[in-house]
Write a structure and sequence with these properties.
single chain, 456 residues, alpha/beta, Rossmann fold, 2 domains, eight-stranded mixed β-sheet, 15% strand, binds nicotinamide-adenine-dinucleotide, binds uridine-5'-diphosphate-glucuronic acid
Amino acid sequence: MRPRRICCIGAGYVGGPTMAVIADRCPDLTVTVVDLNAARVAAWNDPDLSRLPVYEPGLDAVVGRCRGRNLFFSTAVEQAIAAADMVFLSVNTPTKTRGLGAGQASDLKWVEASARTVAEAATGHTIVVEKSTLPVRTAEAIQAILGSGRPGQSFSVLSNPEFLAEGTAIRDLEEPDRVLIGGADPEAIEALAAIYARWVPQPRILRTNLWSSELSKLTANAFLAQRISSINSIAAFCEATGADVSEVARAIGADTRIGEKFLQAGPGFGGSCFQKDILNLVYLCRHYGLEEVAAYWEQVVRLNTWQQHRIARLVVTRLFGTVTGKRIGLLGFAFKADTNDTRESPAIRIARDLLEEGAQLQIVDPKVSEQQITRDLGLPPGEGEGSWQLASGVEAAASGADALVLVTEWDVFARIHWPAVVAVMRQPAWLFDARGRADETAARAAGLRVWRIGQG
Ligand code: NAD
Ligand code: UGA
C-alpha cells in the first residue's frame, strides 16, 4: 500500500498548510486540496502569493515551490477523491449552535457530508484520514457511513490529528514534536507513517488505537488551554497583591516539571479550537455521566470568558468609570500574532464590551481587514458613540484617544515610538497592555499611565 495520490477535503487553516508541506517534502506524491468554497480555492490559486487566504509566515514560499508541480487546489471534489488512494478530512468542526448538545457538542455535519462524498466517489482501496479534531469514536460513524463499500471499493479509517499552532504552522509541520496516527489497520497506519517518515524522525511518529488518538487531540488542547487559564487566574491575583505575573511565570517555569512554555498571561485564549474542543470534552464527559470531570474542564472556559470581560471592565474603571464618546485605540484584532485569523479572538469580546459602553474604537491590525472586523463585531464602521473605525497605523489609532489597549502581541507593538504616539492622544492618556508586550519604560517616560497584565 504505497499512496501516490492524496486528496484533502477542506482548504482551510489546516488543510492548506498541511498539504503544502506534505507536497513540499514528497515531490513524488500528487496532492490535491479540494473545497466547496470557490472563492477560497481561487485565493489559493492566486498568482500573487501575498494573497493566499491564510496568512502564515513561510507559507507563501512553500506554496510557491509546489503549486502546479504536485500541489493543486480545486473545487472538483468528487474527481479528486476518485483519483486518490488516501483522503484527508480536514473540514471545520465548530460547536453546535442548535439542537442536541447546542453550545457544547461539535457540529459534525461537514464531516458527515464529506464522508458521504467519499463513499460516493472513491474508487479502489482508499485510506480515509481524520485530520479534523473530532469527538472520541467519530471514526466509528465515519466507518458506518463508508460502509463496506460498493463493489470495487474498500476503506481503512485512520485518525491523524493536527497539532500545529497558527502563526508557527510551517515550523510546527516541518519539525513536529510528534505525529500521531491512530488506527486498527497496520498496513494503512504504516502507509501514512511512511509519508511523514520522509522528514519526521521515526521515534516522533506515535501509533495508537483510534480512540486514544482522537482523545489525545482533545486532551492536548484542554491541557494547553488550562495552563493559560491557570496563569491568567494568577495574573489577577498578582494585580491584587503587588506580585508580578511575569516574575512568577519565570520562577515556576524554571521547574522542569512545569516548564516555561505557555505561561504568558494575556487577555484570555482565542482561536477556533481551544474553547470548542474543551466544550466538546465537557459534553462528552456529561454524556458518560462524569459530572465532576465535566465541571472541572468547564471552569477553564469560564475563567477565560471572565478574563476577557475583566480587561474591558478595568479600562472603563480607570477612565473615570465611563468611556462614552471617548476614543480608544485597539492595538491588534487577530487572536494571536502572525495570523489573520480572528476566530474567538479576545479582541472581539473586549471591543463589544467597550462599544456597549459607548466608546469610539480605532482599531489597527497588520493583517485583519475591515470586512472581517465588520463580520466579527456585527457592525459596519461608523462614527459617534458605540462605533469603530479601522486605523491605518498606531498613531492613527491613538489620535485623540484617551487610551490604547494592546490586545494582540504583534511585534510592531513592541517597537512603538511612544513620544510621537503620546503627542496625538488626549491627556491624561493610558496604555492598557493586556499582553505585557509594550516597552513600558518608554511608554511611561513619554507620559502615559500604564496598566500591564498581572502587574500589581
Ligand atoms: P477552516 O474553516 O479554516 O477550513 C475548513 C474548510 O473545509 C472550509 O474552507 C470549508 O469550506 C471546507 N469544507 C467544509 N465542508 C466541506 C465539504 N463537504 N467539502 C469540501 N469542503 C468542505 O477550518 P480549519 O481551521 O482548517 O480547521 C479544520 C479542522 O482542523 C477542525 O476540526 C479544527 O478543529 C482542526 N484544527 C485546526 C487547527 C487550526 O489551527 N486552525 C489546528 C489543529 C486542528
Ligand atoms: C492551539 C494549539 O497550540 C495547537 O497545538 C492546536 O493544534 C490548535 O490550537 C488547534 O487545535 O487549533 P492555536 O490556537 O493556533 O493553537 O494557537 P496557540 O499558540 O495555542 O494560542 C491560542 C491562544 O492562547 C491565543 O489566543 C494565544 O494568544 C493564547 N496564549 C497562548 C496565551 O494567552 N498565553 C500563552 O502562553 C500561549
